[in-house]
Amino acid sequence: MKRVAIIGTGQTPHVSHRTDRDEPEVLAEAVRRALADAEVQPREIEAVVFGSAISSIQEGIEHIGKWASDFVCGWQRPSFRVHTGGTVGMAAALGAIAWVASGGCDTALAVAGTLRMGATGAASQKALSLASDPIYRRGFSGGAVLGLALTFRQYMEWAGVTERDAARCVVQQRRNAARNPNAHLREPVTEEEVLSSRPLALPIKLLDMCPTSVGSAAVIVASEARARQAPSAAWIRGFGSFAEPSSYPERNTMEALSVRESAKKAYAMASIRNPREDLDVVELYNAASYQQMHWSEALGLCEPRKGGELFRSGDTDFPEEGRRRAGQVPINPSGGVLATNNGSDAALLRLVEATLQVTHKAGDHQVREARTAAAMGWGGNQQFTSVVVVGANPP
Amino acid sequence: MTQAAVEGVFEVPYQWVVGEGNRLFFEGLKEKRILGTRCPECRRILVPAVTVCERCSRECREQKLLPDEGTLTTFVVVHGGVIDPPRPLPYALVLVRLEGAATDLLHLWAAPLDGLAPGMKVRAVWNEDRSGGLFDLAGFAPAP
User: Fold this and answer.
1) Which residue of A has its CA nearest to B57?
2) Which residues neighbour A318 within 8 Å (Cβ) at sequence distance 6 or greater?
3) CB-CB under 8 Å, B76 with A146
4) Suppose A218 and one of A10, A165, A263, B14 were both cysteines; which one would form an S-S bond, judging by CB atoms 3.0 to 4.6 Å apart?
5) Residue B102's closest CA among B32, B59, B49?
6) Are A330 and A324 in contact (CB under 8 A)?
7) Of B140, B111, B121, B123, which Cα lies nearest the Cα of B71?
């Protein structure tokens, strides 16, 4: 596989609603920011992979990629849309990486995002319920959080953590988001506010969940020759992607196999032997409060069932003045998915943030001297996972 | 003055084919039988019945009758959202590991909400009127 690097990133600030621009125009904003960051002209983009996880029913648009194509450098290039649920942003990046790494082109764009427009009110919730298969699972309702709620309770029993532990994760992530000007939910919350928030499908309460955010993100992937001319480069050191069963909660074994295997593959490619030490930053996909504990284990940052202990140690907090000490591995300095989620760009933002860290562009949430970072995407009916490792040095 | 947004409404009637695996399962429920299938390669018993094993990609044709009893793996208590078909809130959904099955079965809790605890023994509760559908099973309740 040829060496490839991310030579520019773009993201819009994420907010609850926008009425100033339509969806393709919002996508174009992230593209412009990425082009500017990379000092690349639009005509240099040779392929585009666009990720959107918002359903046709939700949007009332059968395939948003058809409309968006003009706005994301699609004209007279290979222009593909991918859909892997909430991890689609990273799937789009992997698509662009594959184009360049195969030698198919020198410069490719991956972009994801959404305006979350379309179905309004109760119809919007109903549209989300269509994620379950129509014959068996849809009739139970419980909403999009049902599968997460089942896993949350099962994880608490298995790992010996509590709802309060999960609430503390939310507090930490909000604190991190306050340092990230592009995050959506940046105000602090307390444990008690999380614990007393509206019950959805218990144990999941409103503040255990990510918001619905509007915005977009983009990365520009380049070949080694092109990357060496660029103002900055985050080298793709490793990646892995695995899928769980479609009816995952019914087949859940707590080992988070897809996360574990994706990480193992990415780490092997990147020659990472001790993730806790070798990774300066981890940007993981925490759609629900408890997940950062569960994913910490599967990402090899601690032993199985020790995700709660790792969190309580404080070693995953944003370090003082951004200076990471031995044993620390900051998780989601950006605030993660809990602070910002539009369903389409959340996984791409993990890769964007990992890139900002290793190219030292993360501003107030910069982990100083970060050189190696892991980004994790997750989505579908709890089923699609990807892990990408980026580094300041080429392989 | 220009419009900021354009409005529209769709109504889309649908028909979804029930499929082989679900049809087998529903026909079994009508007879108060919970049916799974066994994968010829990994030998796991999958319930509800499916015709393809997700791990081995093999066709699963061997039907297995599962007992009505099992262990509660976990549960959730639903407090809100779009509930269709309508149901009084709150209600609980459970994952039950029937004896011999390799997968949990998702269904309703058909007993009072207090006293739900992972690990407890549970058994299936049947509706008097059954028509070959998912809710021929009223759900699960504590085993006597």
Assistant:
1) A245
2) A175, A176, A179, A330, A333, A365, A367
3) yes
4) A10
5) B49
6) yes
7) B121
Task: Tell me what ipTM this predicted complex has.
Answer: 0.88
Of B22, B93, B134, the CB nearest to A146: B93
Query: Which chain B residues contact residue A139 at CB under 8 A?
Result: 84-85, 134-135
How many Å apart are CA A388 and CA A354, to the nearest integer? 9
Q: What is the CA radius of gyration of chain B?
A: 19
Partners of residue A126 in chain B, C-beta under 8 Å: 82, 84
Tokens 């028509």 — which residue? Answer: B131
Tens digits of residue pLDDT in B55-81:
999 999 999 999 999 999 999 999 988
Q: Which of B10, B16, B74 sits opposite A60 (nearest CB)?
A: B10
In tens, the pLDDT along A101-150 reads 999 999 999 999 998 877 777 777 777 777 778 888 888 887 778 999 99
| DSSP H or E run through B35 | strand B34-38
Long-range contacts: B40-46, Cβ < 8 Å, 24+?
A: B44/B102, B44/B103, B45/B100, B45/B101, B45/B102, B46/B101, B46/B102, B46/B103
- Taken as a whole, chain A contains a residue count of 395
Cβ of A201 within 8 Å of Cβ of B54? The answer is no
Chosen for mutation from A141, A145, A148, A246 (greatest number of chain B CBs closer than 10 Å) is: A141
**Whole-number Å distance between alpha carbons of A365 and A281:** 11
Residue B24, helix vs strand vs coil: helix
Q: Mean pLDDT per 10-residue run, chain A (395 residues)?
A: 96 94 94 98 96 84 89 94 92 97 96 86 75 82 85 97 98 98 98 97 96 96 98 98 91 94 98 97 98 98 98 98 95 98 94 98 98 95 94 96
Q: How many CA atoms lie within 13 A of A60 on its CB side?
A: 15
**Structural tokens at position A343:** 């369903």
- Which residues have a Cβ under 8 Å from the Cβ of A243 and sit 6 or more positions away? A258, A380, A383, A384, A385
Who contacts B82 (Cβ-Cβ below 8 Å, separation ≥6)? A122, A125, A126, A129, A141, A143
pLDDT tens digit string along A163-220? 999 999 999 999 999 999 999 999 999 999 999 999 999 999 999 999 999 999 999 9
